[in-house]
Amino acid sequence: MTNDQLHGASSGDAATSAPLVDVRDLSVRFVSRDMDVSVVNGVSFELREGEVLCLLGESGSGKSVTMRSLMRLLPHTAQLGGSVSIGGLDILGMPARQLSTIRGSLVSMIFQEPMTALDPVFTIGQQIVETVRCHEGCSRSDARRRALELLELVQIPSAARRLDAYPHELSGGLRQRAMIALALSCRPRVLLADEPTTALDATVQIQVLLLLRELQRELGMATIFVTHDLGVACEVADHVAVMYAGRFIETGAVGDVLNRPHHPYTVGLMRSTVHGGQRGTTLEPIPGAPPDLRSLSTGCAFAPRCGEARPPCLTAMPELVEAAPGQTARCIKYGAATTYAAAGTFQAAV
Amino acid sequence: MQTENTKTNDKTALRVMTRDVDTRDRGGPRQPMLIIRGLKKHFQVSGKSLGQPKIVVKAVDGVDLEVGKGETLGIVGESGCGKSTTARLLMHLIEPDSGEILLDGETVGSMRGVDVRELRRSVQMVFQDSYASLNPRLTIEDTVAFGPRIGGLSRTEAKSRARSMLRMVGLAPELFAQRYPHELSGGQRQRVNIARALAVGPRVLILDEAVSALDKSVEAQVLNLLQELKKTLGLTYVFISHDLNVVQYISDRVVVMYLGQVVEAGPVERIYETPRHPYTAALLSSRPSMDPTKRITAPPLTGDPPNPINPPSGCRFRTRCPLAEDICARVAPALTAVDDPAHLAACHARVSGSGHSHASAAA
Question: CB contact, 8 Å: B290 with chain A?
Fold first, then answer.
């Protein structure tokens, strides 16, 4: 490679081509005296500046834990494996003391329940001022000016008055906006949002979703959304990754995955989600319940609930392979090996 | 609300006549199962001791409802609109300040009508939190057998009733009867709650956000179960939820509540296809699009629902309403039939002669 190409790559293309977030084979195990649970079992993805990735999954699928490991916001019992690199920094290898320098400024997070995430004994203004001063070392009055700007940015009406309000004095929607303001206070490059609208009412949920979408576009942040709601994913995501038992089982552009799901679990999830025009029909739920993460089998984790499972599904965990252009699925049906096609169904085999 | 039930009652009438006659039926098939008139419940949150200002939350403020026999009535609304308080009032879990409840034509709690004990035998409830609503120290068999035992069955009869109920909700008694609530998944626990509610042989089931805490794949299982049970047992449901899609799926008729009052009521297709109250319209268009190419670009409503401690004068929705005019601040609109006798809405803009500028056009 010539010098020119090197320069071209580092100045022009680097911002767009080098991933801002690079997660390789992430695994998280919670280990204690009477517990050993593998919650995340090998998750890999890349995220560039300005992209929105949505982690979709049911409770216990490992989506929140995956997201929290990007900030190492996990209890001491968690054992992390693999690698997480954000903006070129090795997050998993970082000494614990150094983490506070990246939390807030490089990576920031919005939580589901603002009432428990905000400190009830300080006003919204005090909480933002403290964060800004701590990270940017500016004067109190500058920080307060910045706090006011932020409240206006998240469209809180009569922002100057709301600076001196305590969290309990705000309605649910305003509290969530205040938390977004706090999360954005140090200009993060990566924003993590953990079910940010689940606790809100329908008419407020859509307002906060649209606000987040607008802010993300304006500020060009890379954003990871965790949600169990297909509709929310549809409104905000560029890409989605569907999780099951601690693994990505399908990834792709949001329109492709929701319109043409390939993995049987995604198909089942779409079918069992109630939407308009199903009155009088019987729903098609996925039978059974999600697996117990304490005792995962060696084969495909979804096989026990899968209508298309055949004997080879039980022997090894399938790889994430391309199921359609730009879309991957962790299902042996789409693999190169012909074992699935060759194998009979269970009835035939038994 | 008297007229709107004729249509649904006709359907119910047909169905009931083809089935065996229910001996518990007192008022006949056309008599609504539940009638609620002018139900009010105000909670005093402050001012109980001297010198404190008196603050009252008007949780339910004059609600009228009717639930036909064999019907599923969906109640939707945002948090604080009084839908759960209405459910608890229906069960007499809290005493109403005023208003009356009629069960199959008979007043609840009056001298000549049915007493609260009888009400609770006929009306049962399933709550949102499946774990908190089960006794952690009872096996699920004992939990389900508790009601029938209190109702006068012997220990063995109650146990066999419990086992058949568990089988009915899809939990094999030989596997599940001796388990404790913590050994079950969320979906299984909610099935136990349904079995417990059905064990005393109720005619009405109140489902207060009964599927809201469940994952989508499990939610669909429980919804199917509810539909099946309704058919086999001839039940009447009051289905309370904030999930508009689920309410549309399961309900025959829908009531929309806002700050303690009913703002719109009618058959499910009419409410979802031609909502006549601006709040209902906004609520429906707040649903995410489910199609990334047709994303919502502007929020249908701004702001949060106002505090029920100090609701706006006149129409309670006027502070967020795109159609609000002077008249809306002065006069509270009454529920009136619009377009169709079964479709009611409380909005000045839909009533001719109300003084609202849209009114003549809409009438």
Answer: yes
How close is the nearest chain B Cα to the Cα of A29, in Å? 22
Chain B residue at shortest CA distance from A199: B79
What is the helix (H) or strand (E) element at residue A107, kind and residue range? strand A107-110
Domain carrying residue B259: 5-137+180-314
B254: part of which helix (H) or strand (E)? strand B253-258
Q: Residue for token digits 């034509």?
A: B105
- Helix residue spans in B101-154 (DSSP H): 116-122, 140-150
Q: What is the ipTM of this complex?
A: 0.84
Check if A232 contacts B (Cβ < 8 Å).
yes
State whether residue A284 sits within 8 Å of chain B by CB.
yes
Collapsed DSSP state (helix, strand, coil) of residue A194 = strand
Q: Which strands make up the sheet holding A222-227, listed edge to edge?
A: A107-110, A190-194, A222-227, A52-56, A239-244, A247-253, A327-329, A321-324
* Pair (A98, A177) in one structural domain: yes
How many domains, in total, are found in chain B? 1
Task: Tell me the one-letter amino acid at B83.
Answer: K
Question: What is the token pair recorded at B200?
Answer: 């005393």
Q: Please indicate, yes or no, whether residues A118 and A257 belong to a single structural domain of this protein.
A: no
Indicate the angle between helix axes A124-136 and A140-153, nearest 10 degrees: 120
Is residue A283 one of the residues assigned to a domain? no
Show Cβ contacts of residue A226 under 8 Å, excluding neighbours closer than 6 positions.
Answer: A54, A55, A63, A64, A67, A192, A193, A194, A195
Evaluate whether residue B173 is within a structural domain.
Answer: no
**Is A110 within a domain?**
yes
Residue B39 lies in a domain: yes
| A329 and A182 assigned to the same domain | no
For residue B337, the cross-strand partners are B344
CATH of the domain at B75: 3.40.50.300
Break chain A down into helix, strand, coil percent, rounded to 5: 40, 20, 40
H/E stretch holding A223 reads strand A222-227
Would you state the structure tokens that stand for residue B342, as one six-digit string?
């079964």
Report chain B (363 residues): mean pLDDT per 10 consecutive residues. 46 45 76 93 82 85 93 92 92 91 88 85 92 94 94 93 95 94 92 95 94 89 95 95 93 95 95 95 91 88 85 92 92 91 93 80 46
Cα four-point dihedral sign B316, B322, B323, B325: positive
A8 vs A338, more confident:
A338
CATH code of residue A203: 3.40.50.300
The values of phi and psi at residue A193, to 5°, are -125, 115
Tell me if A6 is assigned to some domain: no
The Cα B91–Cα B89 span in angstroms is: 5
Residues A329 and A186 in one domain: no
Same domain, A187 and A251: no
- Is residue A266 one of the residues assigned to a domain? yes
Find the residue in B nearest to A197 (Cα).
B288
| Window 194-223 of A, Cβ < 8 Å to B | 201-207, 209-210
> Rounded distance, CA A151 to CA A163, Å?
8
Q: How far is CA A159 from CA A63, A132, A154, A164, in A?
A: 34, 17, 10, 9
- A92 and A225, same domain (yes or no): yes
Contact B217 A272 (CB under 8 A): yes
Q: Can you tell me whether residue A20 is helix, strand or coil?
A: coil
Structural domain count of chain A: 2
Q: Is there a single domain that holds both residue A232 and residue A251? A: no
Same domain, A215 and A323: no
